[in-house]
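hi! just following up on the protien thing from before. the input was this:
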Amino acid sequence: MNNTESGGLPSHIAFIMDGNGRWAKKRGLPRNAGHKKGGDTFREIARHAKDCGIKYVTFFAFSTENWKRPKEEVDALMKLFSEYLDEAENYAKDKTRLIFLGDKSIFPREMSAKMVDLEKKSKQFSDFTLSLAVNYGGKDDILQAARRAANLCRDRDLTPQDIDERFFSGLLYTSALPDVDLLIRPGGERRLSNFLLWQCAYAELYFSDILWPDFGKKGLETAIEYYKGRNRRFGNVQGAAI
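and the predicted 3d structure came back as:
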């Protein structure tokens, strides 16, 4: 569990980038134009979060459920993601650690290999970590961790009594990250949508009606100010255990 003090900066901010399609529709544009504009906002927010002193940011880019979308839209999203991977070398040069959350095996070999390579090249950086959730689902994350724990017990490397919260967290895709302090979802919806379910157990939730492509720096700063005003007790009363 993360224990960021009330009134301070969140250590880990997670984003659900929602509203790209509606942004495009309002302007009479194809949905793909909304995703492209949303990609620009992603880059702006990532840079500004680092400038604000945030240590970890995680973006929900593509869920396990998103494969059900029309093929044309999925192909466009994969093209945008491939372009991001091509430019991601710049993040590594900027001493940013890159992590890709989710099952990489479903992607073409070239893309999955590039993700692994970027993770290896940037692993030594610790000042700022940017994680991108692709082919990710919160339930799938917990299930794959449970299967790994079951296999360890089967192979007698582990007993059920060894499985505590800290150990199980180390089996999740987010094993290198602290739990989420602040979850930000623009776009008007008020739900987690199967994103970081375990990791958001004590996250502060910030919802905005602004569509993701319009969220920008001001939107991030407003969300951080909201977070600073929260009293994070983690189940305690006035700092004393119940």
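The radius of gyration is 18 Å.
Residues 157 and 179 are 26 Å apart (CA to CA).
cheers
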